[in-house]
Amino acid sequence: MPLVKPFKALRPTKESAPSVASPPYDVLSSEEAKELVKDNPHSFLRVNKPEVDFASGITPTAEEINEKGKENLNLLISNGKLVQEKKEALYLYRLTWQEKSQTGLACLCSVEDYVNGLIKKHENTRPSKVSDRLEHMLYLGAQVGPVFSIFEQNEDIESLFEKLTSSQSEIDFVARDDIRHQLWVIDNSDDTDAISDAFLGLDFFYIADGHHRSEAAYVASKRMKAINPDHTGNETYNFFLNVIFPDSELRILPYNRVVKDLKHDSLEQFLDSVSEFFLIANSSEEVELDTLHQFGIYSQGKWYKLTCKPESFDENNPANSIDSNILYENLLKPILGIEDIRTDSRIDFIGGIRGNKELVKLVDSGSWSVAFSLNPVSVKQLLNVANASEVMPPKSTWFEPKLRSGMVINLF
User: Fold this and answer.
1) Which helix (H) or strand (E) holds 364?
2) What's the pTM?
3) pLDDT grade, residue 408 (50/70/90)?
4) Is 119 helix (H, G, I), strand (E, B) or coil?
5) What domains are there in the chain, each with its CATH number?
């Protein structure tokens, strides 16, 4: 069973949390992030996405970016916006969005549990992104973006969560996107022991979001172990920052796609090729997807609904029956010639929180030729893929609401 460990988090005060806590580094473009921080010198984006502090037109080196992140982290500490806990603690982090809440445990998890498969994955990682997070982590001497993980519903744990969140939270604010963030500090040893013992009843955790951060933490631990002659295994670098939620409370939105060109002379020729694997229906309005294995296409001002032909995928294979994989294997790769969606510049990915209106906007701008709307992956599908030790295509899951960066930080 995977372990959960209390730690002395660096975190914002209740007064500073609304201005410090920020969206994750990877859900905003640099320009969007710059707009968010221009009137907020305390935003944690200046730590987690420090390129926002460089003027447009300037291309800083990775070292300069990471040095700026370290400088900004130290500034938040020196001016009292971030303070370190005096006692080891566990933290309960609740997000409330559209009248629904999810409550997770913020803690440290063992790198060894990650390596040994007790913390399961469902995506491959890209070396360049791992390297980026690794160097950022090592420069800062801190893990500043938590991994977002799942545990299967457990009544004992959820009863503990309910009991421990019945008191006033230490931090409570509503962000600009109308998501409420609450944090409870659990530093009573009886309570932390009870939580730790309850989690020992679980077989696995499942990474929902943060595969690159997990892998970067693993590589960082190897590096730091190699240069520490007195290594014991108890050092903080042997663990990584994680927030773990019950599967019953999570929501996954679609992760849609846009592609630069049709690779055909006309839209009609493209749709004719598509018809080999899909049934196609014209739509006079924005496509609403009724069931799995359906897709929307938007191109040249028109919507079409695709329904996958049953013989084009294996329903019994957890990974192959994911809609993002069906679209890749039957359309993106054979018809549009996109061999590697992780590296091909002809494709981009649009989080479902932006809705179909963003797809229409991008295609109508002329920068993209065709957009694809997908059904969201279910939590059950994700767990099935992870339990089968398989992986989904990149950018298959968009979890909402997002954890805020800067709420809890692990120093090492």
Assistant:
1) helix 355-364
2) 0.90
3) very high
4) strand
5) 10-251+400-411 (no CATH), 255-375 (3.30.1760)
